[in-house]
Each structure stands twice: as structure tokens, then as C-alpha cells.
Design brief:
Two copies of one chain form a homodimer. Chain A is an alpha/beta fold and 178 residues long. The first copy, chain A, has six helices and eight strands; from the N terminus they run βαβαβαβαβαβαββ. In chain A, the strands form two sheets. A six-stranded parallel β-sheet of chain A has the order 3-2-1-5-4-6. A two-stranded antiparallel ribbon of chain A has the order 7-8. In chain A, helix 4 links the parallel strand 4 and strand 5.
Chain lengths: 178, 178
């Protein structure tokens, strides 16, 4: 498998109290598809591990979801290993103003949250970054930030050995077993 | 309000049979925040109109959700008005290979679906476009495509008159009533 040129991890904080499995699944799959190596997802149902294991086996790569760590610990350990903490929030600085700095970083922890993000996250973060100052979607914000930080290189990445592989097609679906 | 330089509409097809309101809400808000003028959402609960009306009143703009039109009609009318139909699918041509062409278009209908998209959509589309050939999220794919087609200009857009406005901040939350 092609080596990733940056080490990017994702941390999800501030889950809603109602279970929100679909949003979590989107966040995990987007992190995997767009060049992150792992996502920290706190205390959630373990079904997600089986889902991601299946996706890796079918489509390649070794993306990991890490359960059961408090967000404070994940952020503290990121700081210890000089991993920049980038918190996505509509209240932050415009992405286009900070993306030049972010591109220079080799190790990042991207924090995605929601309405329930504790104030401490804003203060612990090295960067609070807004993908527009409009309300939309943490899934969309994560996707655009991963894309911008890697300058689009993540779109070209190979996932190495896999059970299935798509051959891009102008019409229809072409899938092969390599 | 600042005028959008392109006319971009979004069409959602292939809803799952189980209600999937949260994904739909994400798709609507991403379309609105990232420069589309409207989204066609077929037959869904009308709650979403109230949600979007509230977002427009609070945060500006005149983004619209359009209900009750069959997808065939939306695509046919797009073709009649020479609006390019861009279908997002992991089976399509890599975004990075077609983005140059897409940027030249002034009127687009971006079709987002899911596993239940009818085969006819692949054949009716002018472009079938993949944001990676990996499984992830229609919300993320839509975000990256809107961002790339507009070359990042959508991030700088003002939403004009609004009840609340965020002042970008390196730490914390600053919201004003303009």
C-alpha cells in the first residue's frame, strides 16, 4: 500500500446523547477514504469496528477506529508527540486563511464535534478552523479539511491489496477482483 | 447578498426506505453553505422546509429545498435548460481528471444518491464522477465537488442580511446581531 505522506488522525468529541450511528459511520469512512490513519471515537457501540474491518478487507488499507479513550487523553497524547490539534468549528478562523500553515504540518489530530463540544477543546486546540461560518455538517467540514491539507493528493492514493477494486468508468459500474 | 457566479442545483435520488432525516439534513445544509441555490429532495417529510427556513432567517441567504418532483423530471428539465448533470458515484471517473471541465460549466445539477440509485441515472448523467473509488459518504463527496467546482470561492461568500453573524475567532465563539 502506498505510504501516506502525513500522519493524520481524527478525534470525534461531543456526541449527542441520542445514538447517531449513521453520522459516526460517515465520519469513519470519510477519514479512511481521505487519508487519515485512524479515528478516535470514544465510547460507542462496537458494531462500527466490524463495519470498518469489513471495509478494509474488501477495499484495502489498514485504517483503524480506536474506542474507549477519553478525549482529554487523546489531545494530551497528541500534544506530547507534537501532533498539531486542529478543531473544526463554524466559530473558528476561515480555512482559506490558515490552510497554508496547516499544509506545512506533518502530524495532525483533527477534532470534529458538534453542538456538545466542551469549551476546553477550543482552548486546547492549536487551530480552531471554520469551513465557512455557516451551519452545515461535520462530515463535510472534515472532508474539505482533509482534502485541503493534503492538497488533493489523497484522491490519488492506492489502498493496496484488496478483495475488490473499482475501475473508473464514464458510465455504469466496473468492479474487479484483483 | 453576494451573487453566486455559477448556478448549481443538487438532486437527491435513491433514498433508503428507512427514513434517513439526518443525512438529508446534512445534504441540504452542505448544499446551502457551499454555494448551491437549491436542492431537489423528492418526497420526504416536510419538516426539512421548516428547518431550512429557520436557517435562512438566522444565517442569511435564500437557499431552497424543492419537494415532490420525480427525479426523471428534474433531470429532463436540467437537460432542457442546458444544465450539466453531474452524478456522484464511487464507480465514476476520478474527480481530479474531470474537474477542469466541470469548472468551465456555469449551470450544473449535481446528483447525489446512494446504493439505491437507478441505473438510468448513470446513463442520463453527462458526467459520472468519483471522489475516490472508495466507499465513504455522499455528504463528503458533495462537499468536495462543490468546493472544487467553485475553486474554493464558495468559502468566501457572504450570506447577506441575517439575524446572527459569526465573527471568526482563534479561540471561543463570537456571534453578533448585525
Amino acid at each position: 500500500m502506498e505510504t501516506l505522506t502525513k500522519s493524520i488522525r481524527v478525534l470525534r468529541v461531543g456526541q449527542r446523547y441520542v445514538r447517531d450511528d449513521r453520522t459516526l459511520t460517515h465520519l469513519c469512512l470519510v477519514s479512511r477514504a481521505l487519508g487519515a490513519e485512524a479515528i478516535h471515537i470514544g465510547d460507542v457501540e462496537k458494531d462500527i469496528l466490524a463495519t470498518l474491518g469489513g471495509v478494509n478487507r474488501t477495499w484495502g488499507g489498514d485504517f483503524r477506529a480506536i474506542l474507549g479513550e477519553p478525549w482529554r487523553k487523546v489531545i494530551r497524547e497528541a500534544k506530547e508527540e507534537r501532533r498539531a490539534v486542529v478543531h473544526l468549528t463554524m466559530y473558528g478562523m476561515p480555512l482559506q486563511d490558515v490552510v497554508g500553515e496547516l499544509r506545512k504540518l506533518d502530524k495532525l489530530l483533527i477534532v470534529v464535534g458538534g453542538p456538545k463540544v466542551p469549551g476546553k477543546v477550543y482552548h486546547e486546540a492549536d487551530y480552531n478552523v471554520a469551513v465557512t461560518s455557516q451551519p452545515h455538517s461535520e462530515i463535510a467540514a472534515l472532508a474539505i479539511v482533509l482534502h485541503e491539507i493534503q492538497g488533493g493528493e489523497e484522491l490519488k492514493r492506492s489502498f493496496g491489496k484488496s478483495r475488490l477494486k473499482i475501475l473508473p468508468s464514464a458510465r455504469g459500474k466496473r468492479v474487479v477482483e484483483p
